[in-house]
Amino acid sequence: MARKTRTNRSPEFKAKVALAAVQSQQTTAQLATLHGVHPIQITQWKKQLLAGAAAAFATGTKNDSGQAALVTELFERIGRLDMELEWLKKKLAGLG
Fold first, then answer.
1. 50 in the same domain as 15
2. CB 3.0 to 4.6 Å from 26: which of 8, 30, 67, 92, for a disulfide?
3. Which residue range(s) make up the domain with 92?
4. Buried b (16+ CB within 10 A) or exposed e, 14-38
């Protein structure tokens, strides 16, 4: 008996199918037949969509704190480079 290979679906496809499942205009079995995936897979995608929906509206998520740290680090680096530039300008002005 031949084994089927796994098909990697794009995140856009998964979101589209999961959103259709959430809207409940068709049954899970109908969606599975229409899109060529297993009904259990659609149920899993639907659960992931509903679990991740709250994160889209959350404030102060971990990604924001990571970006804040990156921004702080970059501002510090800019400050150091500005100081080095000013020091070099003074040194060059003293030579001339």
1. yes
2. 30
3. 63-96
4. beebbebbeeeeeebeebbeeeebe
